[in-house]
Write a structure and sequence with these properties.
The chain contains 10 helices and 7 strands. The protein has 259 residues and is an alpha/beta fold. It has a single domain, classed as NAD(P)-binding Rossmann-like Domain (Rossmann fold, 3-Layer(aba) Sandwich), CATH 3.40.50. A 7-stranded parallel sheet has the order 3-2-1-4-5-6-7, sandwiched between helices. Helix 2 crosses helix 10 (229-240), helix 4 (80-94) packs parallel to helix 5 and helix 5 (117-145) packs parallel to helix 7 (166-186). The longest helix is centred in the middle third of the chain and has 29 residues, at 117-145. The structure holds NADP nicotinamide-adenine-dinucleotide phosphate (NAP). Residues 25-26, 28-32, 50-52, 55, 75-78, 103-106, 126, 153, 155, 198, 200-201, 203-206 line the site of NADP nicotinamide-adenine-dinucleotide phosphate.
Length: 259
Amino acid sequence: MSTQTLTEAKMSHHDLLKDQVAIVTGSGRGIGLSIAKKLAGTGATAVITDISQEFADSGVKEITDSGLKASGFVCNVTDVNSIEKMTEDVMNKFGRIDILVNNAGITKDTLFMRMKLEDWNAVIETNLNSVFKVTQSVIKNMSKVNYGRIVNIASVIGIHGNMGQANYAASKAGVIALTKTIAKEYASRNVTCNAIAPGFIDTAMTQKLKPEMKEQYMKFIPLGRFGSPDDVAECAYFFCTGGSYVTGQVIVVDGGMFM
Ligand code: NAP
């Protein structure tokens, strides 16, 4: 065993991401907040960014109240100026960005026939174009120091499609293709880029679905329960800690719904 590996082995799980800075977009609540908490629990400073100041503040409070490190910034992932400002503020405050989790996302579901161009554009803008913009803003710092972990939150819908979700499915399929391309372009800089494709996760996004629809989904989940944000966070944690030889991959976290 090399000295490096021995030292790593001796490090406690709580220190694995010690001194690292992790930006998670849309992390005021839901899956993003769980990921931020998990990374903070492993020693990182979690940078909570959200379109809403209120959610950014409450997310930070939840983490710092448990004795972990977090810092909040308002950032609208559709707005380049807002993104550039956030990245600059984070660099000025911490001097490094080791991890980026592109998590912010929305749905605007309706059958294709009724889908307005504005519903299409809003979802592509928030879920896909944002990943281009935020990643471009952050990756140059990673590239410079030869280290980075990028995790994109896609969806099983981006692999399989879904009735009423043409805009969402296309945005998430785009995120998967973008993930693989960034993985190829930045592998030589030791920047990995992977995606998580969650199935049905119990958050505000899915709480608005009709009970009949939820029952329908449940029938197709072999593990017999909806996922929790923590189930997704476990996977993000893997990409940011142990998964140094894993890049360009999509891990499906869906209780076995699609296999
Ligand atoms: P959520 O609870 O609605 O959280 C999404 C977060 O993103 C919210 O805090 C939201 O802020 C923020 N956000 C929305 N638009 C934003 C913008 N323009 N700029 C910055 N932040 C913005 O949803 P979630 O379920 O945790 O979803 C997180 C990610 O997982 C999304 O990409 C989603 O597509 C994906 N996903 C979710 C599921 C699921 O079943 N829940 C399944 C597959 C994939 P506000 O609340 O203030 O608007």
